[in-house]
Design a protein that fits this description.
about 290 residues; alpha/beta; Conserved hypothetical protein from pyrococcus furiosus pfu- 392566-001, ParB domain; five-stranded mixed beta sheet; about 50% helix
Amino acid sequence: MNKTGSAAKVKLNSFDDLFGDGQPQAGIEQVQEIALSELHEFKGHPFKVLDDEKMQETVESVREHGVLMPGIARPRAEGGYEIIAGHRRRHACELVGLDTMPMFIRNYTDDEATIIMVDSNIQREDILPSEKAKAYRMKYEVMKHQGSRAGGLTLDELGGATGESAKTVQRYIWISRLSELLLDMVDSGKIGIMQAVDISFLSEDAQQWVLVAIQDTNAVITKQQSAMLKESDKKGELTFPMVRMLLEKEKPVERKVVIKTERINSYFPDTYSTDDIEKIIFQLLDNWKNTQ
């Protein structure tokens, strides 16, 4: 059985320990400068590398100070190296115009590499729901593969790193079954987390119907609607027309019209009573409506 790896168990030596007086020291892992062209994305990497404000901050840091913390990678059978930790740093190096990046090269198994990759990213403050969902699922699959205890205890262990309950972890794992386009809607807030859980239980065809219906109607799904979708699909009764009909239901538009009395009075002689004015206004409105 493969030994269990964890980001917490990976010893990242300090720069003083690594470099000392500039001479290699026996028994101490050495940082290697690896060509960016040799560093490849982790297979199934769930975390997005975006050109956002955070990335710009990383770029400025790399430009001014270099890469302060080396990344971690492992050799690939087909050549080059698979990044385990350091995808954002690699992209920043690329944007700065560097050719290489400092890396620790380690011979991790698939299970060890997956656990370290997830643990080194899962506690980020800006993590997206889709990223967390995929990451939890990847680590859960590894734990099952390694023979970890199934059920609530395993889910509790998964959420331990982020302080989330087993129930919350389970919800995210369910959400990971959504299509990429639906996950994008979850990330943008178009679909709520609880609604996403319900939709994750739909068949692939039904998920596609929901996606198309949302795109066509710009609907915002309520928890009641998502529960109805889930129940109808479970019974084998859900169809595309049913999805559209359900999501096209709109709340009545609340309109409040206020017209100043002074403006109304300016159209009528002082001898007209309020009832006279109201009667004339509605007669005019009826005439207008009949011409539409």
